[in-house]
Amino acid sequence: MSRSEKFTLKRAQKLHERKARYLEGHTLVEGVKIIKDIYKITPATIFIDSAQSNKLKAHIDHFGNRKGVHIVYLSPKEISQLSVTKKNQGIIGVYPFKIPCEATAPESGNALLFINNQDPSNMGNIIRTAVWFGIKDLYLYQCVDPFNPKAIRSSVGSLFKIRFNAVKNLHEFLSSSNAKKIGITEKGQGLLSEHHFADDAIYIFGNEGSGIPADILNACDTKIQISGSGRIDSLNLQTSFAIFAYEMFRNSK
Fold this sequence. Notes:
253 residues; alpha/beta; CATH 3.30.1330.30; Alpha/beta knot; 2 domains; eight-stranded parallel sheet; four-stranded mixed sheet; 10 helices; 12 strands; 32% helix; elongated
C-alpha cells in the first residue's frame, strides 16, 4: 500500500508502533486543539467519531476542502481503539513528519543533547518548552521517539516546529566537535545563573533517574547546576530544562 493512499483504521492503528511510524513516515495526532494549531499541515487522513460529527463540523468542513485529505468516519468504539486517551475528542489525524536526520556535531552555536530520555510526556514538554524559547534543534541519543502519540499530545503539536537530530554514536559525536561539553547536573561546580552562554558548547542532559552516564560526565569540560534551597535532591528533567532554556534565552538577547 503506497503512502499516498488513505489510511484505514487497521493501518492507522499500527502507527502506535515506532517501526510502523518510520516505515510510513506518518504519525497520529489527536485532539481538537492540537489539530487546530497545526492546520497548515495537510494530514493524509482525518478520522471522525460519527457520534460527534455535529460538534466537529468546522473541522470536517475545513479538511473536506483540502486536496488530498481523506475523511473517514468511525463508530465510537472504533475511534477509541485508535485513541491513546481514556476520553477522546472524536478527531484523530494521520500526519506526515520528517524523519530525524543522523546528527553531525555542529560547527558553531550551542547544541542541546538529551541522553536516554524514555518518558514520552517528558519529551513532549521539553519540545514545547524548546519551541517557546526559540530553540530550533534538539539532539537525541537513545531517547523515546518524539513522534510517539503521547509525546505529541504533551508537546501540543510543537514538535512539527523543531528539528530532531538522531545521534547514533555518542562518543563519536562528542569527540568530533571542538565545542565545550557542558553537563547539566545537580552536582555541578558552576551555577547556571552565573553561566556565560556566548561560547560554542554542547549542553548535555541525562536520564531523569540515572542522570548523565558517568563516562560522559567525567569527560565534560564543565558541569553546571541549577541553584535551589537544597531541601530536595533534584528537579525533574522537564523542569530543569525549562529553567535552563529560559536562562539561555535571557542571556542571548
